[in-house]
Amino acid sequence: MNTKPRQLTAAERKELTIETVVELAAEQNPAEITTTAIAQRMGLTQGALFRHFSSKEMLLEATMQWVSQRLLDRVDRAAAKAGCPLAALEAMFMAHTSFVARHPGVPRLLFGELQRPGKTLIKSMVETLLQEYSQRLQLHLQQGIEQGVFYPQLNTRAAASLYIGSIQALVIQATVSGEAQLISQQAPAAFALFRRSLEVHP
Question: What residue ranges does this record give for the DNA-binding region (predicted)?
């Protein structure tokens, strides 16, 4: 007996739209993604798309919120399972690189927004994401200092920037090569180098 496919709820339709934006960002310049392209990928009319998002800007804002929530939730859950600051940092690193390898459009969206001139709400959202992420890193770094695992003079802000920069370098390399899986493949070696910059050596 044939049954009709279940109709998506408004929330599910919104999330599917956001995921479509992320997919398209992996394939082309995010700034050139049009509502027409989004609607065509989803098999919808533009009118149907705008029932959920009244403008492209609102859709991009929702996409950035989706990215922030999922990335921070992923690294928080990874860190919560770790038994020490170093393990937490490593777990967060692997969770982050796994996330961007799975969603290669995400870093392209972030970089694209940061390059836009002037102040925009979306750009502020990206900056807030980076600040909140850095604060999490600095917390674990400070705990490592207090436990004697990391050297006492460690500049936690600089170390957090180096950590994020290491992931960005992996992303850029993978983007240039067109092979997103390189991010996860090279993440362990990249973190090992970062770890060496933190640890107390006899």
Answer: 34-53
Instruction: Express each pLDDT in 53-85 by its tens digit.
Output: 888 889 999 999 999 999 999 999 999 999 999
CA distance 5 to 154: 57
Residue 8 binned pLDDT confidence (cut-offs 50, 70, 90): low
pTM recorded for the entire structure: 0.89
Residue 168: phi and psi, rounded to 5, are -60, -40
Amino acid at 90: E
How far apart CA 12 and CA 18 sit, in angstroms, is: 10
Written in H, E and C, the secondary structure of the chain is CCCCCCCCCHHHHHHHHHHHHHHHHHHCCHHHCCHHHHHHHHCCCHHHHCCCCCCHHHHHHHHHHHHHHHHHHHHHHHHHCCCCHHHHHHHHHHHHHHHHHHCCHHHHHHHHHHCCCCCCHHHHHHHHHHHHHHHHHHHHHHHHHHCCCECCCCCHHHHHHHHHHHHHHHHHHHHHHCCCHHHHHHHHHHHHHHHHCCECCC
CA neighbours closer than 13 Å in the CB half-sphere of residue 123? 9
Instruction: Report the alpha-carbon distance of residue 61 to residue 67 in Å, rounded.
Output: 10
Domains of the chain from N-terminus onward: 56-198 (1.10.357.10)
